[in-house]
Amino acid sequence: MYSKVYLQRKIELLRHEMTEIAIEKGFSDDEAVRLSQELDCLLNEYRRLEDTGWYSLEKP
């Protein structure tokens, strides 16, 4: 499981990397598509954790 801050940062970095690759190589480039799919997974995980509550991950 990821912490909220870690997951947010990972999403930001991956989104930036994907955008750079897509601009450089094209949106249908294999690497751009792979990064997009990875980003989708992280966004789905983030949404799932939002829906179930972050409290289960946070430690005092």
In short:
The protein has one domain (4-52).
SSE layout and pairing:
Layout: H1 4-25, H2 30-52
Helix pairs in contact: 1-2
Protein name: Aspartyl-phosphate phosphatase Spo0E family protein
InterPro entries: HLH_DNA-bd_sf, Spo0E-like, Spo0E-like_sf
Pfam families: SpoOE-like (PF09388)
Q: In which range does the helix fraction lie?
A: over 70%
Q: Based on CA inertia axes, which overall geometry fits?
A: elongated
Q: Alpha-carbon distance between the termini? A: 16 Å
Number of domains: 1
Number of strands: 0
How much beta, percentage-wise?
under 5%
Pfam families: SpoOE-like
Organism: Aciduricibacillus chroicocephali
Protein name: Aspartyl-phosphate phosphatase Spo0E family protein
InterPro entries: HLH_DNA-bd_sf, Spo0E-like, Spo0E-like_sf
Folded structure, characterized:
By secondary structure, the chain is an all-alpha fold. The two termini are about 15 Å apart.
Looking at this protein, list some descriptive labels.
mainly alpha, 2 helices
